[in-house]
Amino acid sequence: MEPLNQEKLEQLTALLTSAVEQDASDIFLIPGMPVAFKLHGQIEAIDERKIFPEEMNQYINAIYALTNGRTMKKVLEAGDDDFSFSIKGLSRFRASVMKQRGSLAAVIRLVRFDLPSPESLHIPESIMGLSGLSKGLVLVTGPAGSGKSTTLACIIDRINQTKNAHVITLEDPIEFLHRHQKSVVTQREIGLDTDSYVDGLRAALRQAPDVILLGEMRDYETIRIAMTAAETGHLVISTLHTTGAANTIDRIIDIFPANAQQQIRVQLSMVLQAVVSQQLVPTLDNRLTPAFELMFLNKAIRNLIRESKIHQIDNVIATGAASGMVSMDNSLLKLYRDGAISKDTAITYSQDSEQMQLRLR
What we know:
Helices cover 37% and strands 24% of the residues. The protein has helices at residues 6-21, 53-65, 73-78, 125-128, 148-162, 197-204, 220-231, 245-255, 261-271, 299-306, 313-318, 328-337, 343-348, 353-359; strands at residues 26-29, 36-39, 42-45, 80-87, 91-100, 103-111, 136-141, 166-171, 184-189, 211-214, 235-240, 272-282, 288-296. Strand 1 and strand 2 (36-39) form a beta hairpin. Helix 1 packs across helix 2 (53-65), helix 6 runs parallel beside helix 7 and helix 9 (261-271) packs antiparallel against helix 10 (299-306).
């Protein structure tokens, strides 16, 4: 790669500043297309001029110049690289640099210095209340870009404000920075501070943790150790790219070999405390708002997990309002009745579209 182009660094800084001012969520720098921002869920080109590969290389150099000495070794060898960087007085950013069609490209996500309040993000207090748990496994699930990391950060922030605890986070990369308040918060980045989630999790268990945040449970070994940690008196909070509590439980069990699955069902039924599932849906004023499903583990659900009757869990959630549970479809229905989303949006994002249509008549 060529030396840093100072003019391109200034252009990149101006782009990042403009994205912050316009409240964009992401910036797209892709050869063959103009620079684009994602604004309220829609990708919009900010000019008509396409980026050529040579110019793209200059942008990539400029991105790495804004990091604390990070090199391009990983992206050149592995084909992709994820990392965070900050611009003082502006914002934090999470960059994903990748090879595509023989050249480099980048997507940059904006991460505010100050974590927005749960109220401004429409995260209900029933979810924030999970911060009061002292042990067990809590999962926040949903598709990529649904706001899981922000929900996790809000829960950790609430713990930090209210508990005398040691919180260890394992993230890839670190997004929100947590300052020590009532808690001591140790934040470790995969690939920088520890080699992998598994290595970081094993080490965390030797570091007197009360709360462990796992940015993602990606494989069998990570899930196994996380469940053991939750079983031995730690609060473990993590994410999966699944939709719905029942699908999440199925995914965890399916990761394990067939001869271990009954044991895992029993273990999961004991350690799992709650599953939050979320998605971002478009509002009538062209913004995005979260819709949440919330499942608390009660005796009935623990029995269904042990007995491999996962398909019945959705019915328990739908009828569990008295114990604080909320189904995704009930969440969408409330957004519609509150005038936040359209009827079509409620149907499109529902789990049971036919039933939703009947309820909206």
